[in-house]
Every structure is written in C-alpha cells, then in structure tokens.
C-alpha cells in the first residue's frame, strides 16, 4: 500500500517535472524560433544599409588621413594595439596602393546591401566591412560604430533580404516568368524571429548598462549631468543655454533619462507600455540628433526600435503605400481588374505550389478534395473555400468541414484563393486569419464580396482584431474572434451560406 | 531511418543553436561589465567572453555620457613662421562638414587619452605630422585643450559657453620632422 503511494507520488513528481521542462522548452522555442514575418528585418536592412553607405561615403572625404599607413592613426601603432586581440580587419593588412580600390569596392557592396541585392552574401560582407573600418580607426570610433556593427551582425544572421529588397522583386519576377502566382506568399521564418530577438536583447543590454553606468556618477544624481551635456560647446548644434533660466528642466530630463534607461529592459516587454517606452526613446534620440548634432547615432538607435514593432502593422502600412502607388499607376484600368490595390490574377497552374514555413502545399493537393455529403441547398453541395496559413490549421479545418458534409477546397494564401474562385464555383469562403497578413485578408474579403459576390467569414485573433479595428480593415466583413471552436465557426459559416428558411436537405 | 536521423539532426542543431544563443546573450550583457569598479567574478566572466566579443566587435561599454559628463577635449596646433606670428589651428574644427566627419575628428581628440602611453605618444606624433604636412611645415607644436562646460550660475550671470576662462591648455610637445626625409625621423624636443 505504502509502496504504491510512494510510486504514485514519484510518478506525479516526475510527470510534473516533465511538464515543467516541456513547458520551458516550448517557451524557449516560441521565444527564439517561432517563425516570424521578415519584413521588419528588411526595413532595418534598408535603413542600416543606407547608414553604412553614408558612413563609408563620409570616410571617402578623408580616407588617406584616417586609413593611410602614416595617417592620423599609423598602421603600425594600430597593429601593435591589436596584436594580442581576436579581431578582424582587412585594413590591417592592406598597402596604401590598394586603399582606394578597396574602399570603392566596399562602397559598392554597401550599396548592394542597402538595395538588397544578393543579400545573403552582401549582408555578411557588409558586417565584415563595418568591423574592418571600425577596428582600423579605434580612436575615431563612437557609439554610432558600435550600433552599426551590432545591426549588421544580426542582419547577416537573419533573412534581411527576404523583403524590401531587389532580391524579393527578382523572385517575384521569376515566378511571373514561370507562370506562377505573381505574389509570393510571405514566408515566415524562424531565423527572422531569432535575429529580431537578438536585436531586442542587445538593445536591452545597451540601455541597461547606459543607465547603470550613469548611476556611478554623482552628477546624474544631482541632475547637473544633463546640463553639462547641453552646455558642451563642442557637441551642441542648437543653443539651449536658455535652460539656465529654468534649471529644473535639465534636472528633470536627467532623472527621467536614468529611470527610462534603467527600466527599459523591463518595461519594453510589456505590450501596453512598449509604445510609450519607444516613444520616449525616439524623443531622446531625435534630441541627440537635433541638439548635439549626432544624427547618425540618434537615427541608428531608432532603426533598431523596429525590432520591437509589430510586423503586421508595418506590412499593412507598406501595402497601403504600395497600393496607393499601384492605384495611381493603374487607374483607370481598362479591364476593371484593379480594386483596392489588388490585381486579380490568372489562376495558379496545377504545378504551382505555395510555401508556408517549411511545408509546401501543392495546388493539386488544394483541389483534390471531392466530397459527397449532406446537401445544404437541396440541389448542390455547398462548396467552401478555406484559406489558412498553417498546415495544421488547414488540415483540421478540412477534416472537420468534410466530416460535416462540405466540399472543401483548401488553400494556403489569399492569392491562391483568388485563383480557386476563378477556377471553381465556390459557395462561401472561410479565411482563417492567424499567420496571414491583415491587409491581404481585408483585400481578399472585399474582393470576394464585391467582385465574386461570395459570402466570407474571417476568423481573427484578438490582437489581429484589435489592429484591424484600429486600421478600419474589416468594416464590411463578417468576422469572428478567436479562440472559437470548430463547431462555432461552422455554425457561423452555415448562417451565411444558408438562406433564411432553408434547412438541411 | 533517414527520417529518424533527420529528426536527431534537427534536434541536435536546435540544441547547439540554443547553446550559442545563450552564450551570445551572456557575452553581450557581460561585455560592458569590465568598466571599473568591477568585482573579480564579473571580471572573470568578462574574460571568458572577451575573445568572442572582440571578434564580433561587441566589446563595448555603452557608457554614454557616463559616469559624469565632463570637459570636452580639443587639440590645438601651432606652426612657427619666421618673422611672423605662428599659424594656429584646432581640431575638431566646427567648419568640418559633414557632421559625421566632424565627430570623427572630435573623437580623435576625445578618445586618445583612454589608450596606453605608448599609443598616445605615437598617435600624437601622427597628428603633429599630419597637420604639419597639411601646412607644408616641418615643425609644429601641439596642445591639449580642455573645455569645461559653463555652469548654470555662470550662464545666469551672463557668461557664455565659449568664455576663454573655460578653456585650459596643456602643452603636449613640439615636433620637428625636418630630418624625416633622411629616414631618421625624430621627436626634436618635448616639453
């Protein structure tokens, strides 16, 4: 009896521990490796690449003075300084005769990186270039170089050329040439999540130490420190000495700076406080740019803030902008296919495939479901198109609706849904929002309702719903908040499909 | 079998990646800890990550305007002209454009003092040589100028940020490069 109780206790402890560690492992995987939209990395690459190019362009003005063998930082001195260190800089091994050709090559690579051409290669080269220049002239370095190096490193780890790049445009062109869907489904990637997390944590480390190091200095406690920064004649670009007449203001700014920097590491992870925390940071860095003349440093710090942003919001903004440009290019359209920035495309071919994460769902698979079941209209099968990004969601929705007598046509992206509508007679569409880009969802829903006249039900997570409501994306669409059971989703869809007074045949 | 191997490979890869991420984040957080005062424990931790941080150019302190923002440093130079007043100049020169280049020169004057004595001496000599050759001279004298920020009281009393009393000059040396062409460059005289 006693041994049974001991065994049961042991088993419950073991299973509890197993559950705890499994939960920990899941959290770890979700934090680091949950596939993410790479659009923000693309945006950060665009801005950082521009800054790298500008930095190199500035070196051009005084290249020989700074990088010459007998320049302001003699090569032999810097070599001796670095001799016991584990660092890389090609400048330490270059003769003066190669200075200009190498510099112009670096400028070209920086331009390619900025534009997102061969980004996988140019991002690695951009990082090596950044650290090479910085290590060669250590006396001339400041915070800007540190942040530039940090961002270039994380950009070469992640898929920084997947979006906002010439590479992406070329991929789209290649698909069009091959007769595939012109739009490439956003491929969420674990490496994008990892890079973004690294940028976020690095920013936390920077502010953590920036704040704590200030606590070592009495002037940050007395509040005088901010005045000393303001009154630094060599830094200032705008005269702020009027603050001497309102001395409480620099004191207050000093105290707020400390509080903000020290607590950034905690507050930025709170979704509600994050906008405020980043807004204060933007103010601080723009202030550094405008009043201390360090625009390069101020701006590059704010570029890193993008890692804390919501990719959906930025993708929507960019889509809207692109849609506006697209509309202004295409209106008035001769065939009437342009609507809300989406161009109705030809149906995808049978060989086409749409990719999501690491799983590929072929078009053949999308059309393979032929189900006979309960008749909803009394005459024909209700044929439902289901759009779901995740393979697991597609699978469970298809099985469930099939089991309840629907003829399911399952696709992974809004583009393929349009192709499906053009090919098949579809009675209604269920758009399962999680993982899809909100503007794509909104555009597809209105396209289906306005052009094809098909009833549409959209399921959205509470976060998506929040954004969609704020951006007024789903004003004319039936939507449903998740979590919801499959039963609830089916009932809602049935209500839209079956006319009043009808019943199951 | 191959599927099983693939799964083992994937799990091993993820574990290795996780270990690297842990070490990387540790390195990032421990890098600035080396700025004194520091405990022996933190110093040891910093040493563990040092080669990695140096290789990735992330061995930084991030002590922006800390612990106390103080005087800024400039370097002034003076070139003797026979029968005339010496030609003088100072860097960073606010006329330097773009502003990023100005900051590079500012850092040349500001950061030098954090390096070891030999490096400081060699780089001062390089500055001297650079500015002497810019003005076609073989002799030049360098001064280190500290510019203290004016206090609130001084400004309230009608003072300015560039009041001469806020500048303090220290002679670095006089450099003579007239023998440089004969491959025997030497520091002619140092004070």
Fold blueprint:
The complex is a heterodimer of chains A (505) and B (191).
Chain A: H1 2-33, H2 39-60, H3 63-67, H4 75-82, H5 99-115, H6 119-136, H7 143-157, H8 166-177, H9 190-214, H10 218-222, H11 224-230, H12 248-267, H13 274-292, H14 295-305, H15 311-330, E1 338-339, E2 342-343, E3 353-356, E4 359-362, H16 363-366, E5 383-388, H17 391-403, E6 407-411, H18 414-423, E7 428-432, H19 438-452, E8 456-460, H20 462-470, E9 478-481, H21 486-497
Parallel strand pairs in A: 5-6, 5-7, 7-8, 8-9
Antiparallel strand pairs in A: 1-2, 3-4
Chain B: H1 2-30, H2 40-55, E1 72-79, E2 87-91, H3 99-111, H4 117-134, E3 139-147, H5 152-156, E4 167-176
Antiparallel strand pairs in B: 1-2, 1-3, 3-4
Textual characterization of the structure:
The complex is a heterodimer of chains A (505) and B (191). In chain A, 41% of the residues are buried. In chain A, 59% of the residues lie in helices and 7% in strands. Chain A has 505 residues and is α/β, with parallel strands linked by helices. Chain A contains 21 helices and 9 strands. Chain A folds into 4 domains: 1-26; 34-188, no CATH class; 191-309, no CATH class; 362-497, Rossmann fold (3-Layer(aba) Sandwich), CATH 3.40.50. Residues 331-380 and 500-505 of chain A have low confidence and may be disordered. The longest helix of chain A has 32 residues, at 2-33. In chain A, the strands form 3 sheets. Chain A has a 5-stranded parallel beta sheet with strand order 6-5-7-8-9, with helices on both faces. Chain A has a two-stranded antiparallel ribbon with strand order 1-2. Chain A is globular, with a radius of gyration of 29 Å. Chain B has helices spanning 2-30, 40-55, 99-111, 117-134, 152-156, and strands at residues 72-79, 87-91, 139-147, 167-176. In chain B, strand 1 (72-79) and strand 2 form a beta hairpin. Chain B contains 5 helices and 4 strands; from the N terminus they run ααββααβαβ. Chain B folds into 2 domains: 2-55, no CATH class; 72-182, no CATH class. Chain B is of the alpha+beta class. Chain B starts with a helix and ends in a 15-residue tail after the last strand. The longest helix of chain B is centred in the first third of the chain and has 29 residues, at 2-30. In chain B, strands 2-1-3-4 form a 4-stranded antiparallel beta sheet, covered by helices on one side. In chain B, helix 1 (2-30) packs across helix 2 (40-55). Residues 182-191 of chain B have low confidence and may be disordered. Chains A and B meet through helix 1, helix 2, helix 4, helix 6 and helix 7 of A and helix 1, helix 2, helix 3, helix 4 and helix 5 of B.
């Amino acid at each position: 009896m006693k041994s049974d109780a001991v065994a049961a206790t042991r088993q419950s402890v073991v299973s509890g521990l197993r559950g705890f560690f499994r939960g920990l492992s899941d959290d770890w995987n979700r934090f680091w490796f949950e596939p993410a939209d790479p659009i923000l990395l693309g945006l950060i690459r665009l801005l950082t690449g521009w800054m790298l190019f500008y930095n190199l362009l500035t070196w051009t003005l005084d290249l020989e003075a700074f990088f010459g063998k007998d320049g302001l930082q003699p090569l032999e001195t810097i070599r001796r300084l670095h001799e016991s260190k584990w660092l890389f800089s090609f400048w330490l091994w270059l003769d003066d005769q190669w200075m200009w050709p190498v510099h112009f090559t670096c400028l070209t690579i920086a331009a390619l990186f900025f534009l997102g051409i061969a980004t996988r290669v140019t991002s690695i080269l951009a990082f090596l270039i950044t650290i090479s220049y910085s290590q060669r002239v250590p006396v001339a370095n400041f915070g800007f170089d540190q942040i530039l190096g940090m961002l270039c490193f994380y950009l070469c780890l992640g898929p920084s050329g997947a979006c906002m790049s010439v590479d992406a445009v070329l991929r789209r062109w290649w698909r069009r040439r091959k007769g595939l869907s012109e739009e490439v489904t956003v491929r969420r990637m674990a490496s994008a999540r990892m890079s973004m997390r690294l940028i976020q944590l690095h920013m936390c480390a920077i502010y953590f130490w920036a704040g704590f190091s200030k606590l070592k200095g009495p002037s940050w406690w007395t509040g005088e420190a901010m005045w000393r920064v303001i009154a630094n004649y060599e830094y200032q670009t705008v005269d702020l000495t009027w603050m001497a007449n309102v001395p409480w203001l620099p004191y207050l700014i000093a105290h707020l700076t400390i509080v903000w920097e020290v607590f950034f590491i905690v507050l930025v992870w709170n979704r509600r406080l994050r906008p405020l925390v980043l807004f204060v940071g933007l103010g601080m860095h723009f202030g550094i740019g405008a009043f201390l003349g360090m625009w390069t440093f101020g701006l590059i710090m704010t570029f890193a803030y993008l890692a804390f942003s919501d990719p959906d919001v930025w993708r929507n903004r960019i889509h809207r902008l692109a849609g506006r440009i697209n509309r202004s290019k295409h209106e008035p359209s001769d065939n009437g296919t342009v609507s809300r920035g989406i161009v109705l495309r030809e149906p995808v071919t049978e060989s086409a495939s749409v990719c999501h994460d690491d799983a590929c769902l072929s078009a053949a698979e999308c059309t393979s479901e032929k189900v006979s079941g309960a008749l909803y209209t009394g005459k024909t099968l209700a044929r439902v198109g289901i759009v779901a990004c995740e393979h697991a969601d597609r699978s469970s929705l298809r099985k469930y609706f099939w089991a309840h007598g629907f003829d399911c046509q399952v696709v992974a992206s809004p583009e393929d849904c349009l192709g499906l509508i053009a090919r098949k007679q579809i009675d209604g569409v269920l758009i399962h929002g999680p993982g899809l880009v909100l503007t794509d969802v909104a555009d597809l829903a209105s396209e289906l309702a306005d052009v094809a006249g098909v009833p549409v039900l959209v399921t959205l997570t509470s976060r998506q719903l929040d954004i969609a409501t704020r951006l007024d994306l789903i004003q004319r669409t039936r939507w449903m908040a998740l979590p919801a059971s499959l039963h609830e989703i089916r009932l809602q869809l049935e209500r839209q499909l079956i006319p009043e007074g009808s019943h199951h045949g | 079998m191959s599927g099983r191997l693939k799964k083992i490979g994937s799990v091993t890869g993820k574990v290795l990646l996780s270990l690297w991420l842990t070490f990387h984040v540790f390195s990032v957080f421990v890098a600035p800890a080396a700025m004194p005062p520091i405990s022996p424990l933190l110093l040891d931790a910093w040493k563990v990550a040092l080669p990695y941080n140096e290789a990735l150019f992330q061995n930084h302190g991030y002590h922006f305007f800390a612990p106390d923002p103080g005087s800024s440093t400039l370097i002034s130079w003076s070139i003797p002209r026979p029968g005339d007043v010496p030609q003088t100049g100072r860097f960073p020169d606010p006329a330097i454009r773009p502003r990023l280049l100005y900051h590079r020169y500012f850092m040349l004057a500001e950061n030098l003092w954090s390096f070891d004595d030999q490096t400081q001496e060699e780089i001062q000599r390089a500055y001297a040589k650079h500015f002497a050759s810019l003005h076609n001279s073989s002799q030049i004298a360098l001064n280190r100028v500290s510019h203290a920020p004016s206090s609130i009281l001084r400004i309230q009393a009608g003072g300015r940020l560039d009041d001469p009393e806020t500048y303090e000059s220290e002679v670095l040396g006089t450099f003579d490069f007239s023998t440089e062409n004969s491959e025997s460059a030497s520091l002619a005289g140092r004070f």
